[in-house]
């Protein structure tokens, strides 16, 4: 049976940035046996979405084919379920992570795997939830799995540095770190210092000042872990600021950080650089949704764009100066 048509935004080849996004009408996708079809209410952009367009994951054959509808982090309402879906029914409000292979977020409807979909209670707005999957879980997993922070506050005290604390990942990292037994130092631009203090950071450095560039804690602390959400900071800057066993969790590992990682391993250094890539899981997503519902975590929204202006949202994300998350609404 022919499917109804929907509005979507796609691109046809690598490169081209926002100018190569095209508004199109395409058939509403059909859910496979373990998938739900969602009527989307909010979509967020993560840097990986436009990095895939740039060709960063071309060696991994991503995206799987062109044209490609980008974006993976969405919230909406279930309007159809595959025959083997057990936990969702038509009418449920949910948040989901689509796959990087097939994307699908920049559209009115998208199919999501049941295993990457979590229920969204009415207290959590669609935009607040859509922002969570990649950005929220990266912050959560980097803090808990690599930095060893226990979010129930039961762990040993730790000094944490969050770089680019005003961004999508950073603003969650500061809030989540403060649920644990931590002292948080954060870096951001001058205009965001009060904002980042408001998220709970104990001390904040302007990254354009000499102290900020040196990452020096104003209270003289050494960091047990750095949740490193920006790029271009050499190991020689981190090294003097770390405790004996300090770790830098690098969320954007390039050639130089991979070299440092190998060197630290090879020399049995106690200080480590850990390249980190998130794997989104449904349980983690449900946990973050619950934190938002309980008022323990908030999504800060930089800006909202209608789907008809998706290219403006895309350009804003590429520009790299968002405070919190950029949302697109069909
Ligand atoms: N490995 C993974 O699994 C994973 C997952 C998610 C994200 N990431 C990566 O993590 C990075 C951050 O992602 P995001 O979504 O948080 O990005 P984002 O939201 O675009 O970050 C923008 C923010 O970064 C701030 N900023 C830029 N350069 C800075 C610097 N040198 N020092 C301090 N703040 C700086 C900007 O502040 P100003 O406007 O003041 O400059 C802006 O508020 C990206 O490279 C992304 O690809 C990796």
Automatic annotation (TrEMBL):
Gene Ontology MF terms in the entry: oxidoreductase activity
Domain Enoyl reductase (ER) span(s) in chain numbering: 16-328
InterPro entries noted in UniProt: ADH-like_N, Chloroplast_QOR, ER, GroES-like_sf, NAD(P)-bd_dom_sf
Membrane-spanning ranges: none
Pfam families assigned: ADH_N, ADH_zinc_N_2
Name the UniProt record assigns to this protein: Enoyl reductase (ER) domain-containing protein
Source species of the chain: Lupinus luteus
């Amino acid at each position: 049976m022919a499917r109804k048509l929907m509005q979507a935004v796609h691109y046809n080849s690598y490169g081209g940035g926002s100018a190569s996004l095209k508004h199109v009408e395409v058939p509403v996708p059909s859910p496979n046996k373990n998938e739900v079809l969602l009527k989307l209410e909010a979509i967020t952009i993560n840097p990986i979405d436009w990095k895939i367009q740039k060709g960063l994951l071309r060696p991994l054959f991503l995206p799987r084919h062109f044209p490609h509808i980008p974006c993976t982090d969405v919230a909406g309402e279930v309007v159809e379920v595959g025959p083997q879906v057990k936990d969702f029914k038509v009418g449920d409000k949910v948040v989901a992570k689509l796959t990087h292979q097939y994307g699908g977020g920049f559209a009115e409807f998208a199919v999501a795997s049941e295993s990457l979909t979590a229920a969204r209670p009415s207290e959590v707005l669609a935009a607040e939830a859509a922002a969570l999957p990649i950005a929220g879980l990266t912050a959560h997993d980097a803090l808990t799995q690599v930095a060893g922070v226990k979010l129930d506050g039961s762990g040993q005290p730790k000094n944490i540095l969050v770089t680019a604390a005003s961004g999508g990942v950073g603003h969650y990292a500061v809030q989540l770190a403060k649920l644990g037994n931590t002292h948080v130092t954060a870096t951001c631009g001058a205009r965001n210092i009060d904002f980042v203090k408001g998220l709970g950071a104990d001390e904040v450095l302007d990254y354009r000042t000499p102290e900020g560039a040196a990452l020096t804690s104003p209270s003289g602390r050494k960091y047990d872990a750095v949740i490193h959400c920006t790029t271009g900071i050499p190991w020689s800057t981190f090294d003097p600021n770390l405790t004996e066993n300090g770790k830098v969790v690098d969320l954007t590992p390039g050639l130089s950080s991979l070299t440092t990682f190998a060197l630290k391993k090879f020399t049995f250094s106690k200080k480590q650089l850990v390249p980190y890539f998130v794997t989104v899981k449904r349980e983690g997503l449900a946990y973050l949704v619950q934190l938002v519902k309980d008022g323990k975590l908030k999504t800060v929204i930089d800006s909202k764009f209608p789907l008809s202006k998706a290219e403006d949202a895309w350009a804003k994300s590429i520009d790299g100066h968002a405070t919190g998350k950029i949302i697109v609404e069909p």
